[in-house]
Amino acid sequence: MNTSVVLSSNFHHGETNAYLRTHGSETIAALETALGALDGGTATVLPSGMSAISTFVETLPVGTVLVIPSTSYWGTMALLSEQARLGRVQLRPVDITDTDAVLAALHPSDGPTADVLWLETTINPTLGVPDLPVLIDAAHADGAVVGVDATFSTPLNVRPLELGADLVMHSVTKYLSGHSDLVQGVLVTRSAELHEHIRARRLVGGAVPGALECYLSLRGLRTLDVRFARQQENAAELARRLDAHPAVSRVRYPGLPSDPFHTRASELFDGYGAMVSFELAGSVEDADAVCERVRLIAHATSLGGVESLIERRAMYEGDASMGVPATLLRLSVGIEHVDDLWADLSQALG
Ligand SMILES: *Cc1c(COP(=O)(O)O)cnc(C)c1O
């Protein structure tokens, strides 16, 4: 019933997989088959989400112009800013939820059209939702390649390749593996040419995923649907209760009918995700106190595991500089009983 964990770097002469970095293994291939099927393309697994993004960036020629989110996962921004400082790429950061701003950045009146548009299905951590199909079509009209970080949505909620995107990326670390016990990433594409470039980069760049991590991801994937259904159900309920709590000034969750991205998310996604961000009416110290007082929910970074986590994102320099509100708390909702989660949150807020 299970794929073997192949722990071998090399194989006898004459076997199909001579060397792990060059040819992969049965374990890696099994995970790539599963992840490719979920997104409807051909998958390449890399040792982390960041490794997936940097593998894609390494395939870009020097001088590539990228339109990128002005608020996004901080690591993406750190990687691309470094590449820009080194003179390898040019960046045009925009609010990707503002369709007109993206269109203007793709073909400005006073500069060259962009080569790449990078999107997140739901922005980490402000939970804005870009108009994916419109932006993908506009980028293609300008000849740009579109890559989408779909970590927050998972292929269960949206499959960007079906919307025309050229590349989809996930941090497998999060929902796909789902148990906070590994880091891993994946790139999926329908373009034979892009797939070949990515494989060539992995081969010579050396970013080969570990066999045990691949096995654990395959095991996690088997329960993705039931985990994520429970997590989304919990998140929707917590968002409703937080929205009614006097200590909370704003809840960001596209599943709330009052959320500015509710209509767009309802049209695009099969679910609203399990991340809830909220701001306190109080101070930064009050927000930090909530993180210190939770007992069932863990005060920890990352997301997507079966256990609920909370953190104040602007604590991280990268997020503060990207305009993330100082008191914004990001909650990654797990599979615990929703009443236990609410009891913990309300005592911490109290
Ligand atoms: C975590 C995360 C990444 C980076 O993935 P790692 O596996 O930590 O390298 C990229 N994008 C998003 C949206 C993430 O949440």
Can you offer a commentary on this structure?
With 350 residues, this protein is of the alpha/beta class. It has 14 helices and 12 strands. Strands 1-7-6-5-4-2-3 form a 7-stranded mixed beta sheet, with helices on both faces. Helix 5 runs parallel beside helix 6. The radius of gyration is 20 Å and the shape is globular. Pyridoxal-5'-phosphate is lined by residues 48-50, 73, 75, 120, 124, 149, 151-152, 171, 173-174, 183, 185.
Small molecules held by this entry: pyridoxal-5'-phosphate
Structural category is alpha/beta
H/E element order: HHEHEHEHEHEHEEHHHEHEHEEHEH
Dominant shape: globular
Low-confidence stretches: none
| End-to-end Cα distance | 49 Å
Provide the residue-averaged pLDDT: 96
Share in helix: 40-55%
Q: What's the assembly state of these chains?
A: single chain
**Biggest sheet overview:** 7 strands, mixed
Query: What is the total tally of β strands?
Result: 12
How many helix segments? 14
